[in-house]
Specification:
This protein is an alpha/beta fold. The protein has five helices and five strands. It is globular, with a radius of gyration of 15 Å.
Length: 155
């Protein structure tokens, strides 16, 4: 069986997501250039130098006791960790980007986003993200199927 480029790169995004210590939502991203070469990958996690054990992973509670003010999303990690410009590249991401990541994606020059899940579709943040990305002319493509990569499939 031969997999498509979309399956391959989304699989890399999922593989990267397995590095995330987030017990609820593991997200991965893979940035690819026009020649189908991987430029960068990322996953949601704490910033460099901030211990995964010292910062909270909770979803609810007082803001400073949750993960939200601390975690760097997969898309931003992939952009920030890239060894070169990502202008003109394609972003593969397992979860549709939030409005904050959308700003970084637009500013970085990424031209296309291929995503899998859109579980926050219709929320204010999701609507803001889509509005900005569409206004910036970034092509949005949702895969019509889910690419499965897990520790079980790797064994």
């Amino acid at each position: 069986m031969i997999i498509t480029w979309d399956e391959y790169f989304m699989g890399l995004a999922h593989l990267s997501a397995l590095r995330s210590k987030d017990p609820n939502t593991q997200v991965g991203a893979c940035i690819v250039d026009t020649e189908n070469k991987v430029v960068s990958i990322g996953y949601n996690g704490m910033p460099r130098g901030c211990s995964d054990q010292e910062f909270p992973w909770e979803r609810e509670g007082e803001t400073l006791n949750t993960k939200y003010p601390y975690v760097v999303h997969a898309e931003l990690n992939a952009i920030l960790n890239s060894p070169r410009s990502v202008e003109g590249c394609i972003l593969y991401v397992s979860l549709f980007p939030c409005n904050e990541c959308a700003k970084a994606i637009i500013q970085s020059g990424i031209r296309k986003i291929i995503y899998e899940s859109d579980k926050y579709d219709g929320t204010e943040g999701n609507l803001a993200s889509k509005k900005m990305l569409q206004e910036a002319g970034i092509e949005l493509v949702q895969l019509p199927y889910e690419v499965k990569v897990s520790l079980e499939t790797l064994k």
